[in-house]
Amino acid sequence: MSEEADLSRRHFLTVATSVAGGVGVVLAAVPFVASFKPSARAQAMGGPVQVDIRKLEDGAMIRVVWRGRPVWILRRTEDMLQRLASQTVELRDADSNESEQPEYAKNALRSIKPDILVVVGTCTHLGCAPIERFDVGPADLGADWVGGFFCPCHGSKFDLAGRVFAGVPAPTNLAIPPYRFVGDSLVLIGDDTGASA
């Protein structure tokens, strides 16, 4: 009987060790497999971003991040809108036919509401960040400059609607992300369901 008991004991130990090893492999694999799931931060980066513009003053701009891209929201003044309307400098794509934007932004102001510009703040040349230059006729940009955005990397210029000037390295206008207004004071960037001009 001693041999049968020994065989029985070995069989039990083999099965128990195999089960314990299998459980260990599964427990070790769970965190590895879970690492493939995007983090909460990564999931949030892909979702819409809600921005309260109640405190955004005339002529001021705020910056937010949507999907890892900088997005600017500019509240244009009446003076800025008049300067934009009187734009005499030649633009490369004045009607925004070659640029990334939703249909409701295919107008001279490239926006749903005339005073609010929502634009991706990345130069379409090599991805640099243009700077706001809302001053009129500065010495370094020329007497015909009526305000807009200037990319210091290679000299690309964009007007107050993000339209690119002719003769600069940037090939297209600044991109307009999908967005819509939720009431009068909230902008939802990344979701344009129901948005209209």
What does this structure look like?
The structure is a single chain. By secondary structure, the protein is α+β, with helices and mostly antiparallel strands. It has 2 domains: 37 residues; 147 residues, Rieske [2Fe-2S] iron-sulphur domain (Rieske Iron-sulfur Protein, 3-layer Sandwich).
Question: What's the SSE blueprint?
Answer:
Blueprint: H1 2-34, H2 40-46, E1 49-52, E2 61-66, E3 69-75, H3 78-85, E4 116-120, E5 131-133, E6 148-150, E7 157-159, E8 179-182, E9 186-189
Antiparallel strand pairs: 1-9, 2-3, 3-4, 5-6, 6-7, 8-9
Brief write-up:
It is built from 3 helices and 9 strands; from the N terminus they run ααβββαββββββ.
Please name the defining characteristics of this protein:
20% strand; single chain; elongated; alpha+beta; three-stranded antiparallel beta sheet; 197 residues; Rieske Iron-sulfur Protein
Nearest-integer average pLDDT: 85
Determine and state the CATH class of the largest domain.
Mainly Beta
| Shape assignment | elongated
Please identify which CATH superfamily of the largest domain we are dealing with. Answer: Rieske [2Fe-2S] iron-sulphur domain
In the CATH hierarchy, the architecture of the largest domain is: 3-layer Sandwich
Q: Give the strand order of the largest sheet, numbering strands 1, 2, ... along the chain.
A: 1-9-8
The figure for the number of domains is 2
Distance between the termini: 91 Å
- Work out the number of β strands: 9
User: Which fold name fills CATH's third level, the topology of the largest domain?
Assistant: Rieske Iron-sulfur Protein
Largest sheet: 3 strands, antiparallel
Q: How much helical structure, as a percent, in the residues?
A: 10-25%
- Residue fraction in strands: 15-25%
